[in-house]
Amino acid sequence: MYSIRAENLTKSYGGNEALRGVSFEVSPGEIFGIIGPDGAGKTSIFRILATLVVPDGGSASVLGLDVVRDYHEIRRRVGYMPGRFSLYQDLSVEENIRFFATLFGTTLEENYGMVKDIYSYLEPFRKRKAGALSGGMKQKLALSCALIHKPEVLFLDEPTTGVDPVSRKEFWTMLQRLKDQGLSILVSTPYMDEATLCDRIALIRKGVFLDTDSPSEIISKFDLPLLAVSGPHMASLLRDIRQIPQVFSCFAFGDTHHVVMRPSQDSIDAQINFLNTSLHAKGHNDLSIRPIRPNVEDCYMYLDSMEDRL
Amino acid sequence: MTAMETMKDARRFVSFVGKEFNHILRDTRTLMVLLVMPVVMIVLFGFALSTEIKDVKVAVYDPSKDAATARLIAQIDASDYFTVTDMLDGEDGALDAFRSNSADIVLVFEDNFYHRAVHDGDGRMQVIVDGSNTNIGSMAVFYVSSIVSSFQKELARETLMDQAGNAGEGASGTSQVNISTSMRMLYNPQMKSAFNFVPGVMGMILMLVCAMMTSVSIVREKERGTMEVLLVSPVKPFSVILAKAIPYFVISAFILMTIICLSVFLIKVPVSGSLMWIVLVSLLFILVSLSIGILISTLVSQQEVAILISGMVLMLPTMLLSGMLFPVESMPRILQWISYCVPAKWYIDSIKVMMIQGLGIKYCLDCVLVLFGFLTVITGLSVFKFKDRL
What we know:
heterodimer; A: 310 residues; alpha/beta; Rossmann fold; Alpha-Beta Plaits; 2 domains; four-stranded antiparallel sheet; B: 390 residues; abc type-2 transporter like fold; five-stranded mixed sheet; 5 strands
């Protein structure tokens, strides 16, 4: 039995279609990531599964319970951390966690084992007001509060947005540990680098899943030549690369441009040479061009531009 | 439901109420405003009510400029109560003097005052009072008339002696000297008692604390995203709301006691009705205000909107249409109808009846029933509008 099952979910707000038919399953003990930019429909999925919003169409079940009919039972058994969740700023760390414990009819002592790993970071500051915690600390406290009642499924909507890289890393380590304890975790993130830490991911765009698979499978489906180009004039370089007809797409990626070439019979070295000469003709010298392995973001951007061209 | 579950529910609810009290007590600034505001308002009104008047500014229009007016003006100026600040050039100057705040009362003598007072027995003068200050108004008129009447006697005695001296004939002793003082009240012709403000202040503050604070604190949870978490929990959604209302009920009850104590002991409002009924009706009004706050919170999702609605939609009608500032009876019919929809109007009316007029509860039963009606309808509406989803 799947922990979470969504079938052809649709939801619109006003005339705005937030979800246009989304289906997926999450198995017990799996971390399932929903990857996509803001406004792609991630939060709508979470709200439907957390029984906060009724879908317009399709059906969904959590722990075998229907999200519309059995929402009372679902609410007892899941942990939910909304995207803008910011705890009670004027309550202390300890007051926050104890409040949420009582809310779910348990106590901090009773379920201490569940949150020990995470809460131990916070114990030195347990008298401090939640509002005075750093972003990473707040996130840990919020996770502790979502875990205090031993949920069977955990919904985390953008848990690492606005958190520093070190805390993000720690946060994912914690998720792995929770997964090992058998929790099913549905997590969303706009950060593509976090995608590889999930067991399976769905790439979402404008309310539709572009692809659903394990990160390595998604990457292996990317079979076009991918080159990283950098040079002295990055801005004009981007513009000029995009004008070359043999280039499928090109995006700025930190300090390099990732260039996807159209399928061709030429070897990768021949394509690099071709690109170099074409750009030289446009006045770009001292270019570094090398083949790279695609990451999840490359896959997302590729699928995204495929959709645009359809 | 098992006993175990009931226990858990009870503990959950208690911890909820505790959390709400924590929120309120830790926001010391807001709490101070809530507790100090009623005190300040009542004390301010208390001072405005103080019966001592001193150095009331008097402007005089004296076209007659004769011996009698000069002496009367000097006598008025000499008293502790009045200071003559201005001699006006015309009767129209009175309005300007009030507007520029250079006078609280204006004395107007008629032409040829002395002659008419002594010989015609009908010297006329007018006291124009700035009625917007009800307190100075009534006291000033009282003091002016007593000075005028003693001056009248003085004048009568002198005239009598003059007549005796001049004519040598046995004076009859019946003097014809008479000064008639007419009084005109500007701005507040009915001279409504300032005590009327106390019920008004009570209605306003209780409405403000209950409706605005409750709605803001519920909406804050929506804004912060904590409401989503509360909804996705076994807690019964309406107990979230109830837990929010309880602390504000306690605070309002405390404020109510403060206001009643201050009114009775500081500004000595003659609370002539039954204190128990005043308190009970006030508690009923607090419940109505709380339910309005809850209703607002189910309708909006931003704190600013909640404040605006409780400020504009509740406070303004409460102040303007409840009879607190302006008599509703003299308003256009349509505004009178609208005023029937303002819960505070019914509350203030009933408190006026019980507190100021000292009548029993049975004289304001209609108001109490209407308040009950409001409570039922608004609570019903908010239960109906409350969603346990987003």
